[in-house]
Amino acid sequence: MPRVDTAIDCGTYVNPDRIQSQIEGAAIMGLSLAKYGEITFKDGKVQQGNFDDFPLLRIDESPAVTNVYIVPAGPDTPPSGVGEPGVPPFAPALINAIFAATGKRIRALPIGKQ
């Protein structure tokens, strides 16, 4: 994947480099969940115990560049943090990009099983 572009409206912020890092991690986690994120059960027990059987994107699958656009805060905007808001948009964004490129609608995750 050559590039990811994302924006975040996190209110008043102090360290833009920390926000960049957080969203880079969110890109890897969100795309990993979209491609591989499946929890399976056998005899009432979760099959996945650690990252050896719950895969994440490898370096060759990860975005080469992650552009993060931080929405400027207004003068009265309180801080709100970055945390996990970066993760949820990645699966739908990837699905829409696949649709735009191929015309194929994906309606189930993980897409790695399709």
Describe this structure in words.
This protein is of the alpha+beta class. The protein has one domain: Aldehyde oxidase/xanthine dehydrogenase, molybdopterin binding domain (Aldehyde Oxidoreductase, domain 4, 2-Layer Sandwich). Helices cover 30% and strands 14% of the residues. It contains 2 helices and 4 strands. The strands form 2 sheets. Strands 1-4 form a two-stranded parallel sheet. A two-stranded antiparallel ribbon has the order 2-3. The model has no long low-confidence stretch (mean pLDDT 89).
The description of the largest β-sheet is: 2 strands, parallel
CATH class: Alpha Beta
Catalogue the unreliable spans: none
In total, the number of strands is 4
What is the number of independent domains? Answer: 1
Task: Please identify the structural class as seen in this structure.
Answer: alpha+beta
CATH-level-2 architecture? 2-Layer Sandwich
**Can you tell me the CATH superfamily?**
Aldehyde oxidase/xanthine dehydrogenase, molybdopterin binding domain
Task: Kindly report how far apart the N and C termini lie.
Answer: 18 Å
CATH fold naming: Aldehyde Oxidoreductase, domain 4
How do the SSEs run, as a string of H and E? Answer: EHEEEH
| Count of individual helical segments | 2
Instruction: Give the mean pLDDT.
Output: 89
Give the spatial strand order of the biggest sheet.
Answer: 1-4
Task: Categorize the overall geometry.
Answer: globular
Q: Strand fraction band?
A: 5-15%
- Proportion of helical residues: 25-40%
Radius of gyration: 16 Å
